[in-house]
Amino acid sequence: MAPRNLVARLISLFLFVNASIAQSCWKNTTCSGPTDTAFPGTWESNIFAPSSRTVSPASILSSEGAFISSFQGSAKLSGNGSQLVFDFGIEVGGLVTLDYYATGQGSIGLAFTESKNWVGEWSDSSNGEFKGPDGALYAVFNTSGKYSYTMPDIRLRGGFRYLTLFLVSNGTATVDINDINLTIGFQPTWSNLRAYQGYFHSNDDELNKIWYSGAYTLQTNAVPVNTGRHVPFLITGWQNDGVLGPGDTIIVDGAKRDRAVWPGDMGIAVPSTFVSIGDLSPVKNALQVMYDYQNPTTGAFPEAGPPLLQLGSDTYHMWTMIGTFNYFLYSNDTAFLQENWAKYLLAMDYIYGKVTYPSGLLNVTGLRDWARWQTGYNGSEPQMILYRTLITGSDLAVWAEDNTGLNATWNTRAANLKTAINQYCYDDAYGAFKDNATATTLHPQDANSMAVVFDVVDTDRAESISTKLLDNWTPIGAVTPELPGNISPFISGYEIQAHFSIGQTARALDLIRRCWGWYLNNPLGSQSTVIEGYLQNGTFGYRSTRGYDYDASYVSHSHGWSSGPTAALTTYVLGLSVTGRAGSTWKLAPQFGNLTNVEGGFTTGLGKYQASWETKEDGYALSYNVPDGTIGELVLPLLNAGELPRIMIDGQPVPQSMNPEIVGDAVVLSSAQGGSHEIVVQ
């Protein structure tokens, strides 16, 4: 028996080695992420992220996708053409290492797919040429013996669930697989991939899983900055060695592809990142690369970051500006704002210079946008985005301590634009916005949803729009008229916010369950992330109705622009949001729907923000715990319309200093103090 001091030394050595391994993170990146969750609890069982940066498959499937067995670390391939499918159980990404013993001569093929639809000897499509699948990698053996194969760095596979191994030989070779390990490539600065800085939990298990599937998607989209898709695109195979921007990690649009910074995606991805993972450094680096590549003469931002570096999008130009607001709101990164303020001003001059008169509407000449099939001229969607750009810009002018009067100027411009939008783009006969100021029968999902979310319309028009949006619904989501035949979780992310923002909670929750619930429970999907889009017939050929020349396997099954419910469930259902920089001011406005209890929280530089509520037979109970010194607004649902309920805060009646006022279906209490408080409403 070993002496106690020796045992202690061995234990210490073991812990040191494992700690060193854990802190290695990804390649040469710095481990700057959190080491533990900010909110430990039972809800951590819903986190899809693995507990280690090195993972192995969960099970073995046949070449037809049928379950064979759990994976215990070994398997066998015998004879030319033999193959097995290894299922990791969730979306993963990185570099695979195979340890095996081979007899004879031949090679092992490795093929990767996100969906079970395409398992086999060809990887699904990611290279960008739209011409078909990516093919496979090959581990070659020339003589009998032990081998170890690790994928080259440039062949990193950003997103997959299934790994097909198949044997190519003269017919007599065999391979005994001794081990399969995947080194996770995403969230490269985190040693602990489960160290979430936010959480959400309710009595509805499906909603909980949907929230965490969005969060996990955003993790897979936070990638090392030197692993972007190669440009020019390859005709065969794939290569992820493009430099995406500064720092160690950056947020891109998809795990498998495009693996590039697309600012339009960030309108959804950034708020969802903030309330869940909580790491905003990938967001900062993504925004910075847009400023770094801004046209210094015109002020135009790229549509996409390097190495893709596509140009010519007015909407994505504005999304960079809105992203700047969101990032600063959550982070209070004054150094970032001051460093880029002059460029922001140039960007505002560029886009507002396209407003024409007498209409006062934006004339869109940068036509590239998300996959909608019509763009340009006085399109209603860009008008909504410009309005949001002006409103958020006015706040940024104050935060940047710009004393040139821009706050007032941009607010005035926003008010004038709002008037013009409602005058020229709203279809009174139909009860929603047209796709353009010109005569058209198309009433888009994007512009109408954004009009409500961004507060471009009054209450009556908002209610009408919310009702009209229901006409697009199917059992598996809302078809978007501006991309016929397709369901876009990206744009539906704005629609659920629209319903929530006017108190149509049941509608918003219904759409979340239809769209995101359908995909999460789909056995052909990743069952852990959110998909880029799909067709209304339930197949994955997103955008194929527009005549794109690519197969359906090109669709991304881990796309951050589809993570809308993650932010929406926190902001509207839990009801907790920040309204001032880094949470100096905040709001708590719960929406119950058909739920009975919800809790959740997030973290800023000021500390933790947490809230919970529970409905009771005679009312409801609400609690919150936020940093001392912050000030909030409580928006408490009424129990009976127009009737002020009995409200107790920490066992005491509401003080008159909180100015209780009935507004719509709620009573609003101002100047709520930070700290920990209990509220009972009866």
Automatic annotation (TrEMBL):
Segment forming the signal sequence: 1-22
Q: Which UniProt keywords apply?
A: Glycosidase, Hydrolase, Signal
The entry lists its GO molecular-function terms as: hydrolase activity, acting on glycosyl bonds
- What is the name attached to this protein's record? Six-hairpin glycosidase
Q: Where is the Alpha-L-rhamnosidase six-hairpin glycosidase domain?
A: 250-469
Task: Please name the InterPro entries in this protein's record.
Answer: 6-hairpin_glycosidase_sf, 6hp_glycosidase-like_sf, Bac_rhamnosid6H, Bac_rhamnosid_C
Q: Record keywords: DNA-binding included?
A: no
